[in-house]
Amino acid sequence: MSESYLSGSQPLFPEGLAFARPTIEEAPSMLQDLADVFASGILTDGPFVRRLESAVADRFGVEHCVAVSSCTTGLMLVLRALGGSSVSLPSFTFSATGHAALWNEMEPRFADCDRETWCLEPAQDLSGDVIVGVHISGVPCPVSDLEKVAASTGADLVFDAAHGAGSLVTVDGDTRLLGGFGLAEVFSLTPTKVLSGAEGGLVTTNDGNLAEEVRVGRNYGNPGDYDTRFAGLNARLSEPHAVVALHSLARLEERVDARNMLAERYRQNLGDLPGIGFQAVPDGARSSYKDFTITVDAERFGVTRDQMAEVLAREGIDTRRYYDPPLHRQTAYRSWAEEVQLPVTERLAGRVLTLPMWSHLEARAVDQVSSALRLIHEQRAS
Fold first, then answer.
1. Residue 85 and residue 58 share a domain
2. In this structure, are residues 74 and 67 in contact, taking their beta carbons and an 8 Å threshold?
3. R_g of the chain computed on alpha carbons
4. What is the pLDDT of residues 82-132, one digit of tens each?
């Protein structure tokens, strides 16, 4: 590939095109609520946190929602409450999924992913005391199949739903938002998420005992009398973060719709390029499209994934390699992965490249990124 720019004397995005941007178009009303928080002097464990928990439980169709400081701490507290010595989880995921197991001194048992959806494959040995499915990039796991596996093995089932707010899945003809599957689902509210509180997390469940355990756990294990029942965490969500999340929740549907339209535009623009592949969304499901990731077959496309990323970077286009390396090849997990064989994960990790995606990304930017990929393919031999 030439070291010059793809289509002229300057990059396609001279100011840069970010990988992700938070969408905060509701600022005026949100600022008033934040002013009310600061005037009240109640900055944590207050009325906005309770309003958020109630609104999320109602919206996601679950009995309980517990707001926490992050998705990671939520997963940590859920696994602590469930107990056990081992966790079956996909290796193709963000490190926080595995970290929650290690912090609870639970053995991670890495499993392979489905070659089409990239989510945890149910048809394999999932022998952990707890099974953790991950809704990768917002594409829902096969929730029904994993529930059957958990029932047959006696395992507890939890979902890392960090990317899943706004995603839909159809079970027995009933289309539902994620949130009520397994014993609990844990969502992220970080800035890159479709539903964002700037930071924070949400644990949703229909199990009242589990919800109470997480509520106590997020406050050091103190139920209110300062006689701590167990070694909990400082994992409370602040009132300002709850305000931001409440305003984001009000616009969740339109943001998911916007991302689906952008994802479809990427697919239409890139669908005929040799060697470019996409993550499959199962029939009856909807992805939140927290991310939009392609796969690159170097032999068919003409350049490697890494070469593509380098050229896009010169054009001002920021990308990520989600998730390469997968967990079983990361330093923190090597002692649990010496004999692990995950062929689908290995092949996928070497080919993935995540393109810019956010809720207010302009369609024109998607077209320009797509044009850049087409030019890379056309100039592959130069």
1. yes
2. no
3. 21
4. 999 999 999 999 999 999 999 999 999 999 999 999 999 999 999 999 999
